[in-house]
């Protein structure tokens, strides 16, 4: 028995012990995973490794008032932080009573600088949501408001904007105003947070028109370029990828993306979410897959949700 064969058998035996649900054929290092045996192709060029983009497909909703913290605490999957304890944003979701995802959001503690109603001492939050779902989310919150002392409104796109910044090579996604050697900086950020959904997602930042001295440096890209980076990392977003009222949060990988606090108390949709977590049974997950027609990969990748591809039938 040769050394390479002995090493292959040993590694397969170890892998089988670690995951008994894999068959021996799939563990064979010589097995080809392409549709045509023996055909291998290089990957297409990767998206930009550093830059920033204004996310025009996102909208902002402001919730401000004395009862804002308690109100959101009973509706979201994450533990709501008060602006007095933390101003960093975080990923979260709103569920229906059956534990299905309605809206995936980022929540930023802190009063909207353009807010004119209510007391300056009252807690406030900005909710970053899919633009196509902004009105539906406002209606959803209005349904639970009842007598809660708070104000809600959708912020005009000309008034506030959501940005994403990233740098796969270094630390240029920092929002500090220090004299770094990086050529990618943001001065005087308003609301920002690291994007926890996957490595390399960078940071998200909210800016407002009435801020003075706010500027980016670096290369600006389109929203579609950002979406391409996001999809290659297996990160779903918005109603087109996380179908409202259909998927469990675990099926959209939200449990791995820091969107769920499993130690949190009661909230809408908690029962099924916690039960699924403790049983450990998740039958569907979202994973990135790259498929190309022909023997050569495309010269560049483009984000086009309307693209149709014929899937070959199994032999």
Percent of residues in beta strands? 15-25%
Please estimate the helix content. 10-25%
Order of strands across the biggest sheet?
A: 8-9-7-1-10
Task: Please give the count of helices.
Answer: 6
Radius of gyration: 23 Å
Structural class: alpha+beta
Biggest beta sheet summary:
5 strands, mixed
Number of strand elements: 10
> Which term fits the overall shape?
globular
Provide structural commentary:
With 315 residues, the chain is an alpha+beta fold. It has helices at 3-18, 24-27, 68-73, 134-145, 223-232, 270-279, and strands at residues 50-54, 58-64, 90-95, 101-109, 124-130, 151-155, 160-167, 191-194, 203-208, 220-221. The chain has 6 helices and 10 strands, in the order ααββαβββαβββββαα.
């Amino acid at each position: 028995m040769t050394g390479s064969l002995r090493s292959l058998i040993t590694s397969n035996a170890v892998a089988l012990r670690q995951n008994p649900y894999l068959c021996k054929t799939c563990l064979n290092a010589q097995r080809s995973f392409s549709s045509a045996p023996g055909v291998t192709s290089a990957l297409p060029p990767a998206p930009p490794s550093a830059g920033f983009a204004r996310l025009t497909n996102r909208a902002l909703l402001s919730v401000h008032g004395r009862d804002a913290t308690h109100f959101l605490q009973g509706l979201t999957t994450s533990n709501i932080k008060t602006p007095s304890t933390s101003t960093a944003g975080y990923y979260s979701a709103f569920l229906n009573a059956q534990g299905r995802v309605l809206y995936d959001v980022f929540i930023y503690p802190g009063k909207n600088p353009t807010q004119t109603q209510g007391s300056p001492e009252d807690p406030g939050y900005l909710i970053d949501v899919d633009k196509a779902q902004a009105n539906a989310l406002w209606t959803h919150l209005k349904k639970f408001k009842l007598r809660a002392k708070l104000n809600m409104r959708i912020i005009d796109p000309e008034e506030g904007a959501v940005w994403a910044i990233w740098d796969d090579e270094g630390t240029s996604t920092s929002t500090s105003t220090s004299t770094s050697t990086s050529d990618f900086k943001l001065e005087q950020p308003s609301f920002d947070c690291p994007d926890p959904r996957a490595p390399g997602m960078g940071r998200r930042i909210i800016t407002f028109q009435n801020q003075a001295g706010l500027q980016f440096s670096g290369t600006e890209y389109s929203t579609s370029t950002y979406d391409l980076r996001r999809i290659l990392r297996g990160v779903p977003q918005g109603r087109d990828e996380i179908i409202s009222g259909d998927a469990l949060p675990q099926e959209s990988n939200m449990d791995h993306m820091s969107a769920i606090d499993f130690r949190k108390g009661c909230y809408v949709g908690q029962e099924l979410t916690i039960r699924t977590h403790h049983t450990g049974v998740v039958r569907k997950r979202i994973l990135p897959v790259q498929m190309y027609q022909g023997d050569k990969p495309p010269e560049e990748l483009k984000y086009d949700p309307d693209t149709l591809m014929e899937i070959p039938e199994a032999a």
